[in-house]
Amino acid sequence: MTAAPPPKTLYTRAAALVRRIGVPSAVLYAALLFDVVYTTQAALDDNGPRFVDFGLLPGFFAIVACAVWAQKRAAVAGVAGGGVLVFSTLFIHAFHIPPYSSVLPKVPITEVVAGVLMVYYVTRRARAGVAFCVDSFLVVAGLVAVFGRYAGVSEIDSGTGSQALLFGLLLLAGAVAPAITARDRSPRGRPRTRKLRRVNELAMGQWPLMGLLGFALLFEFGYTYASNARGFPILFCSLVAAFISVLSPRRPADAVLGIAGIMLVSTVVTPFLHLRYDYPMPGGVPFVQIVAAMGVVVNLTRARGLSSSWPRVAVLSSVVALAAILNSNGPRGLQTDPQNLSLLAFAAALLLGISIAVGLMLRSRDSERTTVVQSAVADAQTAERMALARELHDVVAHHVTGIVVQAQAARMMAEQKPEVAVEAMARIENAGVEALAAMRRLVRSMRGDAPAGSSEFSEQATTDLGADLRKLVEGANHGVPTSMHLDLPPDLPHEVGRSALRLVQESLTNVGKHASGATEAFVVAEVAGGELHLRVTDNGRETAHRPAGGSGGYGLVGMRERVALLKGRLSAGRGPDGGWRVEAWLPLAAGEGDE
């Protein structure tokens, strides 16, 4: 039974959308959406002239278009993106539009993400000399955007300028380094995609966490600018924590200890940096480290369950408690108020409970998905075994039965009519060659060189059922003269025709094996009332001795399976005249969906 498809939840739909457009494009569009909402809010508030902030939107959409274009024409799009940054800066400076700061001062997050993506695509796909020139132009355009959007030189202090250069250098290195490792170095021009595939799989599984970390880092960059570089050590710890959290699915247990160590360093360093008011830390822990810790707990609980995770979670909780005591703005530097500590403990327990619940939910979903996959694999293996069994019985047994019948006839007629024996030996040879070819095709299917259960059909059955039936009867391997009545349309569904051929073949094989004294067989194949009607009859009588070659007892079983797959009907038994009668009705509509 085929497993039911998973329900289309909001998460699965979002994951499918991210998979379709790609993680880089999803991040870019998310940044654009954030900037559009933020700019709209700023344009409609009472701070400064109304609607003037809408002047930033054309630059946002233009730089996003260049970043998307860079996925196909990296160098040209990079030059266009640099030009957009320069002209946007001139426009902002001329009309006194106040841009907000993100990772870089006076550069909104959309322009930062678009610039990083363009540098990455240019470095990865353009030729070395072209990539160097275009990246240099993008760097210059970025510097123009950073320093050209201030009203005057006096507004730029040394701390802001040095931080902008430092963060810009980090962004440039973060875009260029992976792009260089992904560049094509093979002589045939084939890109090395194995590492990129691993990174992409990791990103596809972690994109909600990466999005939350990205927004949290956006605010922490702003806090770092406000603290005049005193918050840079905390920002560095947050970046390391975010990196560990994203990679935590590979080694979740070690990742929890790594996050705990980073948080401990940040907790110990914070009192010496005097960041009480310039660097907000809820509960004494920066935003990014909180999100990173929750992500690591989710991944650990998802991988190992709660019973194996609690010792490391306890270590992480102890570090969080120490941070709350040291850095949550107590009256004398330390937080000792029982009421405040209880509130912080409740908030930490709530976040921890949410993380554990999400991890257990994902673990349950993974277990259910594994069960569904195993069930589907077992069903596929069973279906393949059944298809191979039907092929072995219907095709190979048909030829072997013909060989046995012809050999018996040759032995009986050898002394009276030697020429009949010679003809029988020729038919035995032909049947043996056909049986050997059928066995080879079946072995090829079992080895995976062709789809099991379909190779024999595709190589022996054609799209003309009438021609296949005539060839089958003319072969006369079953040893009983056979006549036919065919009334078949030319557009018979292929799946129905193939199954009909096997049903007639197995019926004639049974005639040769079981119809004692049969002198004729009759095959009818006609279409009536939207169904293919098959009838195979003989005038023999029930055999009193063991049939030639024995009987495996699977002939009717295989025939019923084939008919059931097409939602048809099968009837088999003694006819009114004493012979055997097999009838099948196959709906023509059953084969249309299999083409």
From TrEMBL:
<feature type="transmembrane region" description="Helical">
    <location>
        <begin position="255"/>
        <end position="277"/>
    </location>
</feature>
<dbReference type="GO" id="GO:0016301">
    <property type="term" value="F:kinase activity"/>
</dbReference>
<keyword id="KW-0902">Two-component regulatory system</keyword>
<dbReference type="Pfam" id="PF02518">
    <property type="entry name" value="HATPase_c"/>
</dbReference>
<dbReference type="InterPro" id="IPR003594">
    <property type="entry name" value="HATPase_dom"/>
</dbReference>
<dbReference type="InterPro" id="IPR036890">
    <property type="entry name" value="HATPase_C_sf"/>
</dbReference>
<dbReference type="InterPro" id="IPR050482">
    <property type="entry name" value="Sensor_HK_TwoCompSys"/>
</dbReference>
<protein>
    <recommendedName>
        <fullName>histidine kinase</fullName>
        <ecNumber>2.7.13.3</ecNumber>
    </recommendedName>
</protein>
<feature type="transmembrane region" description="Helical">
    <location>
        <begin position="313"/>
        <end position="329"/>
    </location>
</feature>
<keyword id="KW-0808">Transferase</keyword>
<keyword id="KW-0418">Kinase</keyword>
<feature type="transmembrane region" description="Helical">
    <location>
        <begin position="202"/>
        <end position="225"/>
    </location>
</feature>
<feature type="transmembrane region" description="Helical">
    <location>
        <begin position="341"/>
        <end position="362"/>
    </location>
</feature>
<feature type="transmembrane region" description="Helical">
    <location>
        <begin position="21"/>
        <end position="39"/>
    </location>
</feature>
<keyword id="KW-0597">Phosphoprotein</keyword>
<keyword id="KW-0067">ATP-binding</keyword>
<feature type="transmembrane region" description="Helical">
    <location>
        <begin position="129"/>
        <end position="152"/>
    </location>
</feature>
<keyword id="KW-0472">Membrane</keyword>
<feature type="transmembrane region" description="Helical">
    <location>
        <begin position="231"/>
        <end position="248"/>
    </location>
</feature>
<dbReference type="InterPro" id="IPR011712">
    <property type="entry name" value="Sig_transdc_His_kin_sub3_dim/P"/>
</dbReference>
<feature type="transmembrane region" description="Helical">
    <location>
        <begin position="77"/>
        <end position="97"/>
    </location>
</feature>
<feature type="domain" description="Histidine kinase/HSP90-like ATPase">
    <location>
        <begin position="501"/>
        <end position="589"/>
    </location>
</feature>
<keyword id="KW-0547">Nucleotide-binding</keyword>
<dbReference type="Pfam" id="PF07730">
    <property type="entry name" value="HisKA_3"/>
</dbReference>
<feature type="transmembrane region" description="Helical">
    <location>
        <begin position="103"/>
        <end position="122"/>
    </location>
</feature>
<feature type="transmembrane region" description="Helical">
    <location>
        <begin position="283"/>
        <end position="301"/>
    </location>
</feature>
<feature type="transmembrane region" description="Helical">
    <location>
        <begin position="51"/>
        <end position="70"/>
    </location>
</feature>
<feature type="domain" description="Signal transduction histidine kinase subgroup 3 dimerisation and phosphoacceptor">
    <location>
        <begin position="384"/>
        <end position="448"/>
    </location>
</feature>
<keyword id="KW-1133">Transmembrane helix</keyword>
<feature type="transmembrane region" description="Helical">
    <location>
        <begin position="164"/>
        <end position="182"/>
    </location>
</feature>
<keyword id="KW-0812">Transmembrane</keyword>
